[in-house]
Specification:
There is one protein chain. With 371 residues, the chain is α/β, with parallel strands linked by helices. The chain has two domains: 55 residues, DNA polymerase, domain 1 (Orthogonal Bundle), CATH 1.10.150; 300 residues, TIM Barrel. Strands 1-2-3-4-7-8-9-10-11-12 form a ten-stranded mixed beta sheet. The chain has a two-stranded antiparallel sheet with strand order 5-6. Helix 4 packs parallel to helix 5 and helix 6 packs parallel to helix 9. It binds S-adenosyl-L-homocysteine (SAH) and iron/sulfur cluster.
Length: 371
């Protein structure tokens, strides 16, 4: 499922691929570096701003590449700390990119730490029963250029709010690949995009500050373990018996826990870093103390950090979040065993809830406008 745009995004090019394209026109290699500098360091929004490039070359670039493949069409800031950007692709597909601001003590909101949640697909094919992103299935994969463009839009937006620290090229602190879509189902585009973001001629953004979240595609987790760049990994576990997990995550039929857990261990050992186990708490589905005890044992065995996320209700779906007492009791089972655990509290930290829902509403409004 691919969308082939009239012009490929410039954000999908590597220094090497752009150098090759330019060489076909007889342009010297240094041009590619200059052009990418304009894009990632100056964040220009028009070819005309690339003032050191000859006019004929700028005209060719304009005919050949798309400079802005993701247009900001709406923005919703919640009263707390999230800032959701609704972006429209060239085929009118909508995706969400979310800025999560974590205020730092003693400084204003503009100096908060920023985590950016990005999408990798339009919709999702995995069919997890609790999730808004997968409700309409998968529409298509995003290209590497569309993935990178999300971060560039964030940079442009943040540059306008706060002057950028000179030492840092990116206007944010962390990237979490937790938006719409299953990142490992769009593996090649994901790795290409993250490689571009990491490269010195791109945003120079450290791989260790990038967390990829997956519903558990075992062969791809093993492939990711072999990548040169050491990304962080988060597993959407949400059930620690096959019975519970299969009920809410169909992917567990293809890759049950007996395959998933060893793959996660391989990844953790390769990278020598803690993996995160994400566990949404859904009332009467996976919030029993038996699940808590098993989760504790798995986490201790893998040396993983556990992220407990009280479920965020999705319109039209029957699932609920458990009471605060029940959430705490669940967390206590892990705390008592000294398993590192976070129980998300503040609304703004509910990254997942932020993703998928603004887009769903806009799609509905569009459909209503057509009929
Ligand atoms: N497809 C990937 C990444 C995107 S989902 C994955 O599943 O890991 C990011 C996280 O949000 C996942 O842990 C997902 O299970 C969780 N999530 C989805 N819907 C949610 C909801 N309504 N409330 C809380 N978390 C949710
Ligand atoms: Fe897809 Fe992740 Fe949602 Fe499952 S939780 S449907 S894998 S986006």
């Amino acid at each position: 499922m691919k969308f082939v745009p009239a012009k490929p995004p410039l954000t999908g090019e590597t220094l090497e691929s752009l150098t090759d394209r330019l060489a076909e026109r007889g342009e010297p290699a240094y041009r590619a570096k200059q052009i990418l500098g304009w894009l990632y360091k100056k964040r220009v929004t028009s070819w005309a701003e690339m003032t050191d490039q000859p006019a004929a070359l700028r005209a060719w670039l304009d005919e050949t590449f798309d400079l802005m493949p993701a247009e900001l069409v709406a923005n919703r800031q919640s009263e707390d700390v999230t800032d959701k950007l609704l972006l429209e692709m060239r085929d009118r597909s909508l995706i969400e990119t979310v800025i999560i601001r974590v205020p730092q003590e003693g400084v204003g909101q503009d100096h908060s730490r920023k985590t950016i949640c990005i999408s990798t697909q339009v919709g999702c094919a995995m069919g997890c029963v609790f999730c808004a992103s997968g409700l309409d299935g998968l529409k298509r994969d995003l290209s590497a250029g569309e993935i990178v463009a999300q971060l560039l839009q964030v940079c442009r937006r943040e540059d306008a709010r706060t002057p950028r620290a000179r030492s840092e090229l990116a206007s944010f602190d962390n990237i979490v690949v937790m938006g719409m879509g299953e990142p490992l189902a769009n593996y090649d585009a994901l790795i290409r995009a993250l490689t571009i973001l990491n490269a010195p001629w791109g945003l120079g953004f450290g791989a260790r500050r990038i967390t990829i979240s997956t519903s558990g595609l075992v062969p791809k987790i093993l492939q990711l373990a072999e990548e040169k760049l050491g990304f962080r990994l988060a597993i959407s576990l949400h059930g620690v018996t096959d019975e519970v997990r299969t009920k809410i995550m169909p992917v567990n039929k293809a890759y049950p826990l007996a395959e998933l857990i060893p793959a996660v261990k391989v990844f953790a050992e390769r990278h020598g870093r803690m993996v995160t186990l994400e566990f949404i708490l859904i009332e009467d589905v996976n919030d029993s103390l038996d699940q808590a005890r098993l989760l504790r044992d798995y986490a201790a065995d893998i040396h993983a950090h556990v992220n407990l996320i009280p479920y965020n209700t999705v319109e039209g779906l029957p699932w609920k979040r458990p009471s605060l007492t029940r959430q705490e009791r669940f967390a206590d089972v892990l705390r008592d065993a000294r398993v590192p655990v976070t129980l998300r509290r503040e609304k703004g930290h509910d990254i997942a809830a932020a993703c998928g829902q603004l887009r769903l509403q806009t799609e509905k409004d569009r459909a209503a406008a057509v009929t």
